[in-house]
Amino acid sequence: MALAYGGIEAGGTKWVCAVGTGPDDVRALVTFPTTTPDETVARAVAFFAEHDIAALGIGSFGPVDLKHGRITTTPKPGWANTDVAGAFDVPVAFDTDVNAAAVGEGRWGAARGLDTFCYVTVGTGIGGGVVSGGRLVHGLVHPELGHLAIPHDRTRDPFDGSCPFHGDCLEGLASGTALQHRWGLPAEELTDPGAWALEAEYLAYAVVNIAFAVSPQCVILGGGVMKEPTLLPLVRARTLELLAGYVAGPEVVLPALGDRAGVLGAIELARLQSSNP
Amino acid sequence: MALAYGGIEAGGTKWVCAVGTGPDDVRALVTFPTTTPDETVARAVAFFAEHDIAALGIGSFGPVDLKHGRITTTPKPGWANTDVAGAFDVPVAFDTDVNAAAVGEGRWGAARGLDTFCYVTVGTGIGGGVVSGGRLVHGLVHPELGHLAIPHDRTRDPFDGSCPFHGDCLEGLASGTALQHRWGLPAEELTDPGAWALEAEYLAYAVVNIAFAVSPQCVILGGGVMKEPTLLPLVRARTLELLAGYVAGPEVVLPALGDRAGVLGAIELARLQSSNP
Question: Which of B215, B217, B240, B241 to mutate to test the interface with A (most CBs of A within 10 A)?
Fold first, then answer.
């Protein structure tokens, strides 16, 4: 059997660990909740100890220190300054969860064949990974698309925002957490068309700012909030209005790999690092 | 004498044409006003006909069609859909004026040795070029940092914005044109500290959004508006406040090549294309 790679989608709510080479060759997969750092990392170590892998890719919630494979300033209790990569005794490729998902969608999913695109997850929080010219954007730290500053019309939406760092940044206005706080309902129970129009407004501003910053061919919007079926067409329409014909805008699409983009992208990160050590 | 390259900074107000290999080897330089497309391009063609150049780099105002070397939807009268690159009979490297300036600052200026940085010019309009992982960001079109959507508190600043496409985008709120319209004075005559604090607020939002989108090590702020000496320290301070310690922010600096960043970067674009055709 061909060489296999390990992948971890290390999320703030759950970890997904898989062994394989791609969507059609997942040889083992396990999901468990994110509890304490020690317990969670130990479960992943135990899972991979049972499999023969050439390398491990980890896509982690962040912000992260890419060089040292650590989670840094997360507000998640107990997880600030956690060493993740150091716990494994195989070569590790470490990146953000959303960069991993972007890589997965680029290899097998909605961005296949494109060289400049973004993956944005709209869930409990909002995060995004960016591929430019075929390569992940890293830089000083890594993109943090969830914290983009966007227009907030307080006469239309008096909600102050839920981000503990920035108040009414994108995540503070448009994450699942923000929806719960503003409307008193989780996203999956929200039926008011005005609520979804407002959500589309904020996500369209995000797409527009991403377009003006990195000019992607495609923006993939994933995460639990995007499961609302009316949302994607609203975001597309409002994005075009906001661009106002100044430049061509990106395709705005849902992920093709669904909930597996992150863990499959982590496997691809491991393969890429093994090919170009 | 070593091979020389040609460079054009094709701006909306003036064109700068130079022959040489870098800041210490500029063998000829001419500046002339941007008039009609035919007349302006003909002056550049005539200038380079007198010099032996291996290739020509052009950094143009935009938006541009990079593939075909054309200016596209500019509101500048007479210039929409102008073929620029096609007028020259040497190999041409064509990019935006601000991408060229970014390349110049990366090779010889404020971003020397860095691999991820941005050059933003704050003048009559606002534009920006982005280098990520050592390479210019292009994508579907190219970055248009001047049109980022940013928060606009109308109780503090009731000005509607001056961008003909987007109203109160970054350029609409913070360009020299916006300053002139809001205050009735050009930037160089503006002395009210409140006006400069407001300008710093908008530019800091731009830096923050650039930081969250591409995580640059450095953001270079150039252009005429940045000649106000109180502005850079205000932008730096406000950027740190807006980031709120979530991630490390970029250095925010002035260009080291001054007004020659664009034309020198164009020369470097020509050299790069000749080395990697």
Answer: B215
